Each structure stands twice: as structure tokens, then as C-alpha cells.
């Protein structure tokens, strides 16, 4: 038998060590890649469900919608948690609207059938007795806010709710309030996709009917003049709140004191209602990197005024993976606390390196770099860029984004 020389043994051991080191280095990459793909797949399914919603309902979902009323008579006596629950309005989100196309029919029926409540009788009950808490809001029924994997990214480390955890956000168009435009203009179909489908300024005590004002127009796939492959429907957001909660509302905010009441006051002047646009949505702001360029003074968008309106500079927090103080290390520590913080954090963000997954209106998913030019981001968010309220309307989306 031939003897193995010492130099050969050393060489063999060296090769083995190198291979082991390479394998060890590849483990994190193998862990990240499947999570990124799963996130993209979930997002693609959301986009396809929204398309199905458009085919079925003839419009795309709004960021807040009316799903009916619970009469408050305990009409499902088989469920003991239904006893004593008051008459209440069922206000939900875009996520509720597309549940039938996400194999979530049972949850959707809980929202849309009048025999099921979406709040509990006693919001002080601990979660195991049927009540949500924390970022999921106080007092929502657990059967109306289950944990559904389709709304989650496996890489998101910031989900802190056991009920309806969520990291998916919807394209809700132009940010509002702003000094430059009205709420109605912010909801223009050229500016984005998701609009408010429920806006009540007062309730008639005699009839129980509300005065519905400032509800956004129905947006359809036919409004996408830039092409469905050029308009983002969904992205991901580390700070997004649970998918069932329409604004920073609690169960008690939905209660109707009179049995004949049909609506509750819930309009754009209320912080709890306004924030519904942002807590599981993304928006673009009337901002531009060249805001100080005097040569563009006459070329800015007029926004319906007599003279061009100069935009603000692009705030770092409004960019993809943006942070309040520009410190990227703080990305995972940011939380939506109120309407002010919500409007700033309504932008794509993720735990994936250097960018985010997005789903377009044609069902395709793309990874968008966090350093994307803000004008390109605005163009991808607007279904009809040239007719939109973007600051620089002469901008044309680069060809690489139009194939």
C-alpha cells in the first residue's frame, strides 16, 4: 500500500477546510433567499387577488371599506363570545376585501355576514378569551383578526402582534394632508390605487344614515394609462400594523348606540381615520431632489393653482428603507404611534438587503433598489404619471421600467 506523504495530507486537509469554509459562508445566503422568494410569492398573490377583485366588483379595493353591520342580537348563539356584543359597524381594510381570493373565505364571512361580530363584549378580556390587544387594537374579535401567513414576510423581525400580523402595504397614492393639495386631489385616480371608500361627516339621529363625503372614486385597471406593468400595487413595510385594523381605531370606536343607526362618524379630519391611509399603505410625497433648482421654477406642477407649486426636498424617511434620523441601524426600531409618525413611515421597507419586494398590477414581482431615484418611485406609484400631481410632470419613466 502506497504511503501518503505529509505534503499530500496537508494539501488534502487544506482543501477540506476551504470547502467547509465556503459552505459555512453560503448558509446565511441560503436562508435569506427562500425567505425573499416566499415574500415575493405572497405579494404576487395579493396582486392577483386585487385583479380578481377588479374583475368581480369592477373596481380595485379601497384602503378602508364598509363591510356591513352587526345587529347586536347575538344571532350566532353557538359562539359564547358573541353574547352581549353591542350593535357596531364593520369597517375594514383592503386586506379584508381580497380575502375571498386568498383562501380566506371563512374570515371574510365573519366580516360580511351580519350574524358575526368583529369586536368583543369586553375589550378588557385577555387575548385567550377572545380580545385583541396592543398594535392590533383593543377589543377586536380574534376570529376577525387571525394570523394569516399570506400577509407576512418571513424576514420581517418587527411584527409584535399575535393577531393579524402584517408586513404588506398597498399603493395609496399621494400623501395627505399637505399644504399643496386637497384630500380629493390626493385621491385622484391618476395619483395612486387605494382610496377611502368610507367617509362620514355626520349621522342623522332620526334615520341613522350618515352623510358620506370625500369618498374617493373607484379606481380600475383601465385607469392605468402607464400600463399595468409600470404601476406598483403592493410592497412590504416593517412598520405596517395588523391587516384588519382600519386606522388607529379600537373596537369601542365602531359601536353604535342606537339600534337604527347605520353609520358612524369617521372622516378625513379625524386622526384615527386619516391614519388608515398609512398604517398598511405606502404613499409618495410632493417632494423632489431638485426642489432648489431655479431653472425648474416654471416647470413644477401647478396642482390646480395659477402658478407652479415648488416641492419640498425629499425627506430621507420618505425613501425606501428610510429612517426618521437617517440612521439605517434604527430601521427595525421605528414604530407607528400616531398619525404624524404613520404618514412618514408609509413607505416601502424590508429586512432584505438593499431594497424591497414589490408586486405590480400585471401580477409580476420585482425587487426595487432602495436607492431608486425618487422621481422613478413617484412614476411607479402613479397609474397615469403625466396627468398626476407629481412635482415634475415632464418626467418620463425610463425604458428599463416599461418592458
Task: Please give the structural blueprint.
Layout: H1 6-57, E1 64-70, E2 88-93, H2 94-97, H3 105-112, E3 168-174, H4 183-186, E4 200-203, E5 210-212, E6 232-236, H5 271-274, E7 281-284, H6 339-345, E8 355-360, E9 365-369, H7 374-381
Parallel strand pairs: 3-7
Antiparallel strand pairs: 1-2, 3-6, 4-5, 6-8, 8-9
Termini, distance in Å? 65 Å
Rg, Å, rounded: 24 Å
* Structural class assignment: alpha+beta
Strand content: 5-15%
Indicate how many domains the architecture comprises: 1
Q: Helicity range of the residues?
A: 10-25%
Reported for the largest beta sheet, the result is: 5 strands, mixed
Low confidence ranges: 16-32
Mean pLDDT: 87
Tell me the strand order in the biggest sheet.
7-3-6-8-9
Element order: H for helix, E for strand: HEEHHEHEEEHEHEEH
* Coarse shape: globular
- In total, the number of strands is 9
What does this structure look like?
With 403 residues, this protein is an alpha+beta fold. The chain has one domain (32-149, 159-401). It is 22% helix and 12% strand. The protein contains seven helices and nine strands; from the N terminus they run H-E-E-H-H-E-H-E-E-E-H-E-H-E-E-H. The strands form three sheets. A five-stranded mixed sheet has the order 7-3-6-8-9. The protein has a two-stranded antiparallel sheet with strand order 1-2. Strand 8 and strand 9 (365-369) form a beta hairpin. The longest helix has 52 residues, at 6-57. Mean pLDDT is 87; it is low at 16-32.
